[in-house]
């Protein structure tokens, strides 16, 4: 069997801090596993603090994992130093704030061209490579943009520059962390369409991080729903949206406004603090209207449903 482009296996991240009197640990990510292939889009959805960005930061080696493994094309990030060195040409990240991502003192040409010089990726004329990248992200006429400064561009244009800069390194995986959340809705849709288009043309694997199930549905082939550091539900995007199983996924779906959806289920979540993902019980039990004793006392394993649909809930154990 061929190796997946990206294989994430039982990833865990614990942040530790020490104050004068006690040591505190936050289980930010626990037992996260998935695969990602070229040409595929995986969306990671969850509320603030669910661990989405921590997963992304581990995948790009910005922070080390506490345990578990990240394997690119069969090479482990944990053990392979060569892979860590060449990682920027394998995986790149787009952040939500294009305003902060671009140095205001440099021209667009410099911003896009500099990583190509650093990683020695230009054969031939740097300027024509930058113009080609500007064309790829729809900033034309390219000659008009190359000598501009970030302040002369709109938010959507800035995000396109960020994408061009990332694209220059010819990564195989792009992780987009809320790439449209700071943009107007229509501009955000343009950016999502651009990413989908580039995914097809460049045969990229895309991982999209979002709070919004609507954007996840629009973009993704598969969706992973995270809560308190764990994947609660995972499956083909349309199946997960049409046939959600986990109470938390239902909560996310029924709390997002959708004038076209018939409200078939009334879902009243219990108000409570989000639990840490240390795993002694179901982390959603204190907010779940269906929780029983077992949810408060026993850890939950992932249950396999049909069509690759998985759910982490005692209701299905
Ligand atoms: N450097 C850190 N030190 C300690 N705790 C951290 C650190 N970074 C993240 N955390 C904690 O880890 C948990 C997950 O955070 P993370 O930023 O991954 O969530 P998120 O789902 O990406 O949230 P958001 O959507 O708001 O970006 C949170 O409880 C957060 O407070």
From TrEMBL:
Coiled coil: none annotated. InterPro entries: AAA+_ATPase, ABC_transp_ATP-bind, ABC_transporter-like_ATP-bd, ABC_transporter-like_CS, Oligopep_ABC_C, P-loop_NTPase. The keyword Transport applies. SMART domains: AAA. Signal peptide: none annotated. SUPFAM superfamilies: P-loop containing nucleoside triphosphate hydrolases. One of its GO terms (molecular function) is ATP binding. The keyword Protein biosynthesis does not apply. Keywords: ATP-binding, Nucleotide-binding, Transport. Residues 6-253 form the ABC transporter domain. PROSITE patterns: ABC_TRANSPORTER_1, ABC_TRANSPORTER_2. PANTHER family: ABC TRANSPORTER, ATP-BINDING PROTEIN, TRANSPORT ATP-BINDING PROTEIN. Belongs to the ABC transporter superfamily. This is Dipeptide/oligopeptide/nickel ABC transporter ATP-binding protein. The lineage of its organism: Bacteria, Bacillati, Bacillota, Bacilli, Bacillales.
């Amino acid at each position: 069997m061929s190796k997946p482009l990206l294989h994430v296996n039982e990833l865990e991240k614990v942040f530790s801090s020490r104050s004068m009197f006690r040591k505190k640990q936050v289980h930010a990510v626990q037992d996260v596993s998935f695969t990602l292939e070229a040409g595929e889009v995986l969306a990671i959805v969850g509320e603030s603090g669910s661990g989405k960005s921590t997963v992304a930061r581990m995948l790009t080696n910005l922070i080390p994992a506490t345990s578990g493994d990240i394997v690119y094309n069969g090479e482990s990030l944990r053990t392979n130093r060569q892979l860590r060195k060449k990682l920027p040409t394998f995986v790149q990240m787009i952040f939500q704030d294009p305003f902060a991502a671009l140095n205001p003192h440099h021209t667009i040409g410099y911003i896009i061209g500099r990583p190509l010089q650093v990683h020695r990726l230009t054969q031939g004329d740097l300027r024509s490579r930058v113009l080609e990248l500007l064309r790829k992200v729809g900033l034309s006429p390219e000659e008009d943009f190359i000598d501009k400064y970030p302040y002369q561009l709109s938010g959507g244009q800035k995000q396109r520059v960020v994408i061009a800069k990332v694209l220059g390194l010819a990564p195989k995986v792009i992780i987009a962390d809320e790439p449209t959340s700071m943009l107007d809705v229509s501009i955000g849709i343009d950016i999502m369409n651009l990413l989908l288009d580039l995914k097809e043309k460049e045969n990229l694997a895309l991982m999209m991080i979002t709070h919004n199930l609507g954007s996840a549905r629009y973009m993704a082939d598969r969706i992973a729903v995270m809560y308190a550091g764990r994947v609660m539900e995972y499956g083909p995007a349309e199946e997960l949206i049409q046939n959600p199983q986990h109470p938390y996924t239902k909560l996310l779906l029924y709390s997002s406004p959708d004038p076209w959806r018939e409200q078939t289920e009334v879902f009243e979540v219990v108000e409570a603090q989000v639990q840490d993902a240390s795993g002694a019980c179901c982390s959603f039990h204190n907010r779940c209207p269906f929780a029983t004793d077992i949810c408060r006392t026993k850890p939950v394993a992932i249950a396999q449903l049909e069509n690759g649909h998985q759910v982490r809930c005692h209701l299905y154990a």
